[in-house]
Amino acid sequence: MYWNEEIETMPRQDLEELQLKKLQSTVKKAFNEIPYYNKKYSAAEVYPEDIETLNDIEKLPFITKDDLRESYPFGLFSVDISEIKELHSSSGTTGKPVVSGYTKKDLDTWAETIARGLTMMGIDENDIIQNTHGYGMFTGGFGVHYGSHKIGAAIIPISTGQTRRQIEIMSDFGTTCLIFTPSYGIHLGEIALEDGIDPKELGLKAIGFGAEGWTEEMRQRIEKIFGTKAYNIYGLTELMGPGVGVECCAQKGLHIAEDIYYPEIIDPNTGKVIGADTPGELVLTNLEREGMPVIRFRTKDLTKLTYEKCECGRTHARMSRITGRSDDMIKVKGVAIFPSQIEKALLKAGDVEPHYMIIVTRPETLDEIEVKVEASQDIFFDGVKEMMAVQNKIGKYIENETGIRVKVTLVEPKTLPRFEGKAKRVIDERDLH
Amino acid sequence: MKIKQLSIFLQNRMGSLSKPLEVLSDAGVNIRAMCMADTSEFGILRLVVDNPEKGKEALEENNFLVKITEIIGVEMNDTPGGLTTVLKIIKDNEIDLEYLYAFTHDKAGKAILLLHADDIDKLIEALEENDIVIVSANEVYNL
User: Cα angle vertex B135, ends B130, B139, to 5°?
Assistant: First the structure.
């Protein structure tokens, strides 16, 4: 089953021709319409006419999250605001957030990618999709929503939380497809079992999950709990949202919608493009975006690509599960957190910059973060009550900064490791890779 | 009159108490009295020593987090009800006591009670008005 058979099964040579045409027009448009690209490309002495083959993309400089942030809010838009129909923003990052703008056509393109993905998962107009992704500035909620409309399924926009209500609705409405983050999914399954409802009996056809790290073991666990297949969905706000890549029934990697996103894998240290089947950092380019074309975005996500034709018949490249990050961002409960945010919160709690360490664990199914902070004179008092207040205050500041509740532990001075050069502030014990 | 007490921040883990005590012993600092306030994760070790400045210095050299806190010592009868008399005065004067600990020493029939309150001057005043003997800091350091 294909949503767009012609495109999804297009011979690679034709696909690459199509990609080149789209890349050329995207670069031209960006260079002509967006001062950021004009300045950057002029400085690098590379011009739209230099893109003669797909490989010529390597001549173009990368764009990073910092670049996007500096263009806050609308600096990278290539159209007048009257053409922009929707605005989204990435969650919980340092400094200014990243804004993503969509024209009417962009929203349709976004829906198209999700429609292809849902079809890969075997979902069609007869299905009822329960979308537990949050509806808001986070792209997870609306992306799935628009895709569901496109295929004509019935969508339940329930958002995250209210777990018992989720279960009630699942069983009363006869939900056939669930969309969740892996950790929330396992939680949902466990609560259902506690309430005496076996998720296996609910007649689910497919699960789509994403927005945070997972392992093959977690997938198997989810599939066992719900008695159906679980498919990975990948995407990011900067490029559009979820739908950049979705797994097909073969579950052997995520098909990147290659007529819409051009993927490359680079060595994160040198920035050089590396070939297929070798792990590196994923770099993505919008080939089909009107409102805000993003060219050569460094995702910082580590993965690898294969161009072999899939057993499902699709010819589009497949990326493997994300195995890590090339920076120190951590994704917890679907929220992106940078150590610098924790730092900012700690600076509010005391006058000096403390030494700290972030430890991420997943004791059962939900992520937990512990922040170890070295106590210092300005946060040390001769009273347990005062010390508890200090801990709570730090926790509150971190929660305000990141949106995530963490456990704060004060430790003795000079007990946390010291680093020469770049500090390694995060210990991820979730074993996701 | 106020006694300089060392308050030391410690993590609540196995063996964390022995290191600071070793440091003090190596520095030739003698401990007069001690108490520990703890939670599941951290604790505050409170010590009265013969030479608080020297003790603080030695501990800080060994990376301990130390604060000098002022407390007072009062002499009470080492008999049933000795403590109650003192506590009643504190209560009647509506003083919020943060913590206390006590120890006995060579002086027969007497014990020393160590007290800490937010308003330590008010505490001293109230006790003196009621003829409670407040021991001098030097007396406690040099017991």
Answer: 170
